[in-house]
Amino acid sequence: MAKVLMTGNSAIGEAAIRAGCQCYFGYPITPQNELTEYMATHLSRRKGCSFVQAESEISAINMVYGASVAGVRVMTSSSSPGMSLKQEGISYLAACELPAVIVNMSRGGPGLGSIVASQSDYFQATRGGGHGDYRTIVLAPSSVQELADLTHHAFELADKYQIPVIILGDGMLGQMMEPVEFKHEAPEELPIRSRALRGAKGRPSRIIKTFTSKPAELEEINWSLYRRYQLIKREETSYETFLVEDAELIVVAFGIAARIAKGAIKNARANGLKVGMFRPITLWPFPSAKVEELANGTRHFLVFEMNMGQMIEDVQLALAGKEEVSFYGRPGGVIPTPSEVFRVISRLYYQKGF
Amino acid sequence: MTEVIDEMNLQERAIGIPPPGCSVFAYYYFDIDMAESAHGRGAAVATGIKRAFPEAIVFTYQGDGDLAAIGTAETIHAANRGEKITAIFVNNAVYGMTGGQMAPTTLLNQQTTTTPYGRDAKIEGYPIKMSEILALVEGTVYIERTAVNSPANIRRTKKAIRKAFQTQIDNLGFSLVEILSPCPTNWRMSPLEAWQWIDKEMTKVFPLGVIKDITGEKDAG
Predict the structure, then answer these.
(1) How far apart are CA B191 and CA B197, in angstroms?
(2) Would you list the domain boundaries of chain A?
């Protein structure tokens, strides 16, 4: 189909419907309301589909849990303070091996924070976020087109691994308009998972639960999750590289920060500085092997985030001391400009004697 | 409940949501599909299941802490949306699994481990009457309070559960049966004393009977 001009939030909604999302449950919070509104307009009246504006984010994520129990593709979305409330349900989804897609168009924190774009939820998204030993797949798009593509991919991954998948965007990606092309048509038949609870008809009854009074049983559940996480780590990392081949300095950035960094890098290249970029698209699993591969012993890494330094820990873990890592960040919803990041890059470039 | 599910031939359609707490193992006693829920979120989970699969007969089994404290919002709003689900609300005026702490429905002057001097309205407020509150919510269709402290009351409870499920089968809206239930262990009573305490004390605050029934006025939605 031809490209259409859409906000990031609406593009997620359209991509979700085309991925066969049957239920959406949400609670209004800025800056992701256009997504909830899109689903109210476009999903609620579709045959077999359901939209509920829940009474809270906690209710919304538990409705997601219920719909996933019943075997349909289901999504919720929120922004940072709302994501904190959803963590209880995400832990249960992970524990019960239930797929779901959860969108966080993140904003400035901590606390009520601000309503503008920020990347300060990296730790929460990539370390599980709620109680217990679990992970979620975390996808970090950096354009409206990628929001649409990764939304579709998120539903596929969720079903493939029976795991909640988080799309970590930000207020700016959600609000900005860009041309987007949808590569999939909505399915005629909505998919139903085979492991679902749909009544014990023609088969023995099923229980979806984690609670057990036997520690060894729960240990086995944890081992089983761990094995799946190892598989996901091996199979599902994705990233983008930009002008890294001859780069002396590699900027590592994700999401909207990578867009800003790219502008700065183009400027640096125009000034003769050998600068490239590494952009993880999966934040969990983090593409550590590729980061390690980029380390040749003479390079310098600059991690740039719209927070006080969260992804830098994964970069340092991947490099294991093999290269020096610097950091530049702006927290609280401040959006740095490409020229600001260019100044940081060129200062560091000369300081390091490249 | 299981008898009603059997008699109404619902085994192949029923999806139950047991609570955390001392009834969590309910899923071992019902030969139907069941899914664990977080504390208080039963009505939200039931909403999700029913919205995704409207042919199911979805019920929650919730205690007083679950339905009337931590899950108050979920309960009231699911009821207000008129979700076609059924709540079985077991009120024993105490937190059982955690060892006998105050429940939202603990009576005034009742001693619990967190009201060791008796529940004082000035400090802990009053026993909350969820069924009466829910009767004011427009999405509810059928609410009855029963008890299980005598064979006659158990028969009445079964009849109420049957009617609640029928309300859902007929697609009329939210139904709830509140069941006053003894907890001799945490009440520090013999089973017989606990049965008598329900009659003597609990029913004064939580009177038995049909609290709301507009099944005759409702069209299937």
Answers:
(1) 10
(2) 4-235, 240-351
pLDDT in tens, B176-190: 999 999 999 999 999
**What's the whole-number average pLDDT of chain B?**
96
Is pLDDT of B220 > 80? Answer: no
For the segment(s) A4-235, the CATH number from 3.40.50.150, 3.40.50.620, 3.40.190.10, 3.40.50.970 is 3.40.50.970
Q: How confident is the model at residue B20 (pLDDT cuts 50, 70, 90)?
A: confident
**pLDDT confidence band for A212 (50 / 70 / 90):** confident
In this prediction the pTM is: 0.97
> Could A67 and B51 be called an inter-chain contact, meaning their C-beta atoms sit closer than 8 Å?
yes
Cα distance between residue B220 and residue B198, in whole Å: 36
Give the whole-angstrom CA distance, residue B137 versus residue B74. 13
CATH of B2-213, one of 3.40.50.720, 3.50.50.60, 1.10.730.10, 3.40.50.970: 3.40.50.970
**End-to-end Cα distance, chain B:** 25
How confident is residue B200, by pLDDT bands cut at 50, 70 and 90? very high
Q: Residue A167: how many CA atoms within 13 Å on its side-chain side? A: 39
Say whether pLDDT at B221 is over 90. no
Chain position carrying tokens 């092309």: A181
Under 8 Å between Cβ of A206 and A142: no
Beta-bridge partner residues of A107: A117
**Residue in B closest to A191 by C-alpha:** B52
- A4-235 against A240-351: fold identical: yes
Q: B27 CB near a chain A CB, below 8 Å?
A: yes
Which of A344, A338, A329 has its CA nearest to residue A118?
A329
With cut-offs at 50, 70 and 90, classify the pLDDT of residue B38. very high
Percent of chain A with pLDDT over 70: 100
Contact between B52 and A62 using a beta-carbon 8 Å cutoff: no
- Contacting residues of B for A201, CB less than 8 Å apart: 12-13
Digit-coded pLDDT (tens) for B79-113 = 999 999 999 999 999 999 999 999 999 999 999 99
ipTM over 0.85: yes
CATH architecture of A240-351: 3-Layer(aba) Sandwich (3.40)
- What the block records as the tokens of A354 is 């490249």
Q: String of b and e for B124-153 (b: at least 16 CB within 10 Å)?
A: beebbbbbebbbebebbbbbbbbbbbeeeb
Q: How far is A186 from chain B (nearest CA, A)?
A: 18
For chain B, domain boundaries: 2-213
